[in-house]
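Protein modeling request. Please complete all fields; requests missing the sequence field cannot be processed.
Requester role: graduate student
Desired output: 3D structure, token encoding
Chains: 1
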Amino acid sequence: MKSSVPKIDQLAGMNCYCTSFQGVGGLIKQQARGFQVSEIIDGTVLDDLSFVQDEFHKYPVYKLEKRDIDSNHAILQIKKQFGIQLKVLGLKDSKANTEQYASTEKTRNIRRKVRTNNLILSLIGFSRTPLAKSSLLGNRFTIMIDDTELSELSVFESEVRNIGNFYGLQRFGSERAVSHLAGREILKKNFRSAVELLLSYTTDYDSKMSREIREKCRDPQNYAQVLEMIPPGMDFEYQMMSAMVRGKDAIAALREIPISIRRLFIHAYQAYIFNKCLSTALLDGEDLLQGREDDLCFEIEGPIKFGKIRKFNSAVDSESDVVPAVRLVGYSFQPGNGRFEILTKNILQDEGLTARDFYIKEMEELSSQGGFRQAPLCCRDLNFINRSPLTISFKLPKGSYATTLLRELMKPGDPIRAGF
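Delivered output (420 residues):
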């Protein structure tokens, strides 16, 4: 197992690789349709849609196709331009061509189709209830990798099942991996520090203008001046800084950011703890595929569908019955004796936090109970479609990252410049 990984991966808690495959190198997201993602949802949901709105099928269901915009900004754009308040099943980043499902609780003034320069929203029918996140099973990917080196791909195929279910760099802000750092400060009740990080944190990937702006933000006395310099792409920074200039406190400034984005700060920190737990387990030689006594596991209900959580039972459970689960830290986190729970408890102690800190009295809307996530990636239907450019397709369960598989396949020396 190769343990020398790029610095930015380590900043996100990914401290090792899971395969011995040397990597094909290359670049992703270089072509207009070089990174395609489409959601896989429970077939019963689509089967029950009505093309006509009636007393039983009241709620509009949409397909959202987008590019060059992430899901959160797409939702805000659609609400602002067309007055449609959407809820999506999964979040998709901006550096992809994506198809996803969305619904709204509004049952009047239905729009059949709307479009902007980077998205199309199409009505596909009406459902009995608004779509629930539980309807999402996973995602199907088709990805082109340009400028790859020749390599024996069968070696990679033989190791795919060993890949851990790391959260990808997108969860942390990609090249500006600051989300989990802000989340940590919020959990420690250092709200002013969270604002200052979000405004002033820089990385090696910042443009000259971005670096200049953020360096000025290190002195709050400069906020009023900096407001006149901020480009449109730094909208959340503008809102926070405007609040601070108006004399608002740090909590009020953070609340200028949409709640869906604010919650990502806490979720990113949970992801960081998860990644560190998985890295530690892998470097200790732990098997992510096979449960052990006291481990928590998901029951397997389908290729990319997991059921209820229960303790592993070596007398009856096999690898085809269950998949090891990692408990995500939150205010309900009460560690048992499972491998991953013990590791998570130790990491949390090293971070100077407790489970109780995830209940944030000052910003209750950001409190997080925790949850569960499968330890292995569980990639299905991997297929190498073409060699030049190298084109692959595969399916992943919801919440899993295509870039987690790609970092093992490509082993990029600089993930950001490789397109991650």
